[in-house]
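Aim 2 progress update. The chain analyzed this quarter is reproduced below.
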Amino acid sequence: MSYTVKLGKNGEVPLPDSICKELGIAVGDILICEKMSDHSSISMVKHSNQALSDDEIAAAGNLTRVFSYDVHEELTTE
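Predicted structure tokens:
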């Protein structure tokens, strides 16, 4: 299964609610991000330890936490 999304101006990866629901991803989940061999796509899967601190996530270098972000707010503030 794959999806195509446009990166935000700060490099954020938008995950629409419909995709999150289908993949079982929720706000607060920790994801592993890996660059694929084609260099134009990334793989994101749930990390096995969902109890990591923000410092542990940052130290890993390839982890991120899913957070809620209002795309419409960005569009109206420019």
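The radius of gyration is 13 Å. The CA atoms of residues 33 and 44 lie 5 Å apart. These observations will guide the mutagenesis experiments scheduled for the next reporting period.
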